[in-house]
Amino acid sequence: MIGWGSSYGPIGEACRRARRKGIKVAHAHLRYLSPLPANLGDVLRRYPQVVAPEMNLGQLALVLRGKYLVDIQSVTKVQGLSFLADEIGRVIRAALGGTLAEIEQDKTMVAKLGAAPLERELSNDRRRAPVGRRPPARDQAMRRSGAHD
Description:
Residues 121-149 are annotated as: Disordered. This protein starts with a strand and ends with a helix. The protein has 6 helices and 4 strands, in the order E-H-E-H-E-H-E-H-H-H. The protein has a domain at 2-99: Rossmann fold. A two-stranded parallel sheet has the order 1-2. Strands 3-4 form a two-stranded parallel sheet. 16% of the residues are buried. The protein is mainly alpha-helical.
């Protein structure tokens, strides 16, 4: 597991829980992203699987993949709430069980399906929205005649 920022607590706790259950898992947490630690590429290459839980759209995993050419599975959360240790624990179990990629793909599909009705609704609202407000017929007639309230 590799992380940075606010994911430190949940990743650390999930790793401790996993180790107490006899699961071999390591946790590296970056303090700075620039410069990255000199030995980070060597450390990442020692592990058959590297997972990066991130509170964004996976930018850390993208940077690490590009810089070190290591396969890193990104697990993202963008709902505005921090990861929980239980969520990271499920990520660890899924990574070890070989189902993490499927779970992330399902999550992406569900997000897209959820967004589709919203996009459709917004599109319909744009078609129904008046371009400019027209005054009622009575008001138009009063304006033409010069009558005032």
